[in-house]
Write a structure and sequence with these properties.
- It contains three helices and 15 strands.
- The chain is of the alpha+beta class.
- The chain folds into two domains: 27-161, Immunoglobulin-like; 163-223, Echistatin (Irregular), CATH 4.10.70.
- The longest helix is centred in the first third of the chain and has 17 residues, at 6-22.
- It starts with 5 loop residues before the first helix and ends with a helix.
- The structure holds calcium ion (3 copies).
- Residues 161-163, 165, 167, 169, 172, 175, 189 line the site of one calcium ion.
């Protein structure tokens, strides 16, 4: 059996000392602790609205090494379309309409953080109350060991709220259950301004929005009512529809009865 000499014991202690000084990197792979957090600027968004996501990538420093080859991936759910990406100059980013990949060209030093901003638009045809769950990941290159993998991904949810569903959302003045204009609650669920014409379908009155979602009616004069009837009927048939005066006859008869 070989004896342990003073010389071999010296080198054994020297190597152990170097392991302590370098954090074990002499025989272990590079050990890093990369983390990512992802937040959205809103908790709810309407169709057509742009959501801003902020991704913060950090080398936390709980492991001994700078992080080589950090890659950030962000795959957006159906219903979102990437509009723009902003990243530090140390990243090469590319994206499709729904997937973003950013590669850091230099090691991420211990204790340092980077911020990547992604703007994505909510598609117009997405259903109300859809939960847009968006997950992003950040990892060092495959040659590095990850000290704490649980914080290498981060997810955030944004709920879609829509106009025309008869439910008043935080960003709506009104929601009358449709996306029609001309009824004082516009296709964007905002109030039409005071005085905007609105049509209640009554040929003997004129409607004006009051600026808070209601159509106020003003009774027309006899001449205005006749003109209104003629105008409405001409618009559909191209000929003057004299039978349109029939309801007007009832109107006049009713007025006479009431006034007598
Ligand atoms: Ca980690
Ligand atoms: Ca709504
Ligand atoms: Ca409407």
């Amino acid at each position: 059996m070989r004896r342990i000499t003073k010389n071999s014991l010296f080198w054994l202690l020297a190597i152990l000392g170097m392991q302590w000084v370098t954090g074990g990197s002499l025989w272990a792979a590079t050990v890093v602790d990369v983390a990512i957090t992802k937040v959205a600027d809103v908790a709810q968004a309407a169709t057509g609205e742009t959501i801003t996501y902020t991704l913060t990538v950090t080398n936390k420093g709980t492991a001994p090494s700078d992080a080589p080859g950090v890659k950030v991936t962000d795959t957006l759910p159906a219903g979102l379309t990437i509009e723009s990406v902003e990243a530090p100059g140390t990243y090469n980013c590319s994206n499709t309409v729904s997937t973003l990949v950013c590669d850091r060209t230099e090691d991420l030093p211990i204790g340092n953080s980077d911020i990547i901003t992604v703007k994505a638009k909510v598609d117009d045809d997405i259903e109300d109350e859809t939960l847009l769950s968006n997950n992003a990941e950040a990892n060092a290159s495959a040659g590095a060991s990850e000290f704490e993998p649980s914080d290498n991904s981060s997810s955030v949810d944004v709920e879609v709220v829509t106009c025309g569903n008869d439910q008043l959302a935080f960003n709506e003045d009104c929601d009358d259950g449709n996306t029609n204009n001309g009824d004082c609650c516009s296709s964007k669920c905002t109030y039409d301004s005071s005085g905007t014409a609105c049509d209640e379908g009554n040929p003997f009155s004129r409607g004006r929005c009051d600026g808070s979602g209601f159509c106020e009616l003003e009774q027309l004069t006899l001449d205005e009512a006749i003109a209104n009837c003629s105008l409405n009927r001409e618009g559909t048939g191209g000929q003057k529809a004299w039978w349109a005066l029939l309801p007007l006859g009832f109107f006049l008869l009713r007025r006479r009865v009431l006034s007598s």
